[in-house]
Design brief:
The chain has 305 residues and is an alpha/beta fold. The protein has 11 helices and 13 strands. 34% of the residues lie in helices and 24% in strands. The strands form 3 sheets. The protein has a 9-stranded mixed β-sheet with strand order 5-4-1-6-11-8-12-10-9, sandwiched between helices. It has a two-stranded antiparallel sheet with strand order 2-3. Strands 7-13 form a two-stranded antiparallel sheet. β9 and β10 form a beta hairpin. Bound molecules: 1-O-phosphono-alpha-D-glucopyranose.
């Protein structure tokens, strides 16, 4: 996917056994209030492109055809974003803005997008379970849109390779500091290949002294469909929510699971400062915005208190 604003790598046919994905996007976005009174958090931009578009582009690149957005009431703008906008396209064409018109059209053709509404925010595991009927009995990818990951090879594609090799669930991990483990799901795992780990256990938001490692789960999962019956049996865990991590812990009792220390840069789009950092780095990495961004940074008044 790289840093380019609308660059897409052609899907690799041999890596396309997974057709469906779930994108949980039902949260209130309290860290972004007051904006999120009216705008779903997932539509906030990194430089000039909504966070969720990065995730759906990554899925389309990995060969996914059907994306199930898990939303909540008041977030209708998310589905709307992915619907065709023929009037807007026509006006752009008529005004000579052909590239813009094509960019707009490209968004609605990324994938077949459907939504399911999570009536109550009972946790990430519950959000994924809400998509059970839409996914059915096949492996699927989960992308958490807050976790924006850029790099030469999109992370979902990296994970597909591991999934194909082992025929099992795969979770993306990155090393974090001991102090940071409490914000993540953490795996207990041993390395079986370069950056590939066999998972022995998972724990959601552990205290640093209880963490089995410093390998933290970031928001990418390839899950076998049996995870749904596990999620149905999952009781509320950390912060009293039905955790995906706990459901995966049950799945692990039935079948193997792998973790991939992926290559790429992950941004935390879930906080205003994370979003600011992401925008700055993307702007610095893009040819059309790099020089002006450097100039802005150099001219910042750093003496201000
Ligand atoms: C969620 C998951 C957690 C994962 C994290 C990645 O936590 O529950 O396991 O490590 O996303 O961003 P949240 O950020 O919703 O607290």
């Amino acid at each position: 996917m790289g840093f380019g604003s609308n660059v897409r790598i052609a899907p690799v046919a041999k890596l396309a056994p997974i057709r469906k994905a779930v994108v949980p996007a039902a949260g209130l976005g309290t860290r972004f209030l007051p904006t999120t009174k009216a705008v779903p958090k997932e539509l906030l931009p990194i430089l000039d492109k909504p966070m969720i578009q990065y995730g759906v582009e990554e899925l389309a690149d990995a060969g996914v055809e059907h994306v199930v957005l898990v939303t909540s009431h008041g977030k209708e703008g998310l589905a709307q974003f992915f619907r065709p906008s023929p009037e807007l396209e026509q006006r752009l064409f008529d005004g000579g803005a052909v590239e813009l018109a094509e960019m707009v059209r490209g968004i609605s053709s990324l994938a077949h997008i459907t939504t399911v509404v999570q009536e109550q925010q009972l946790g990430l595991g519950h959000a994924v379970l809400t998509a059970k009927e839409s996914i059915g009995d096949e492996p699927f990818i989960v992308v958490l849109p807050d976790d924006v990951i850029v790099g030469d090879v999109p992370v979902s594609r990296q994970m597909l390779e591991v999934h194909q090799r082992y025929g099992a669930s795969v979770v993306a991990v990155q090393e974090v500091t001991r102090e940071a483990v409490g914000s993540y799901g953490v795996v207990d795992a041993h390395e079986v290949g370069k950056g590939i780990y066999k998972v022995r256990g998972l724990v959601e938001k552990p205290a640093p002294e209880d963490a089995p490692s410093n390998l933290a789960v970031v928001g990418r999962y390839i899950l076998m469909p049996e995870v749904f019956s596990c999620l149905e049996r999952t009781s509320p865990g950390a912060i009293s929510e039905i955790q995906l991590t706990d459901g995966m812990g049950l799945l692990l009792e039935e079948q193997p699971m792998y973790a991939l220390r992926f290559e790429g840069t992950r941004y935390d789009g879930g906080t205003p400062l994370g979003l600011l950092k992401a925008s700055l780095e993307v702007a610095l990495n893009r040819e059309d915005t790099r020089d002006r961004t450097l100039e802005i940074i150099r001219n910042l008044d750093l003496e201000q208190p």
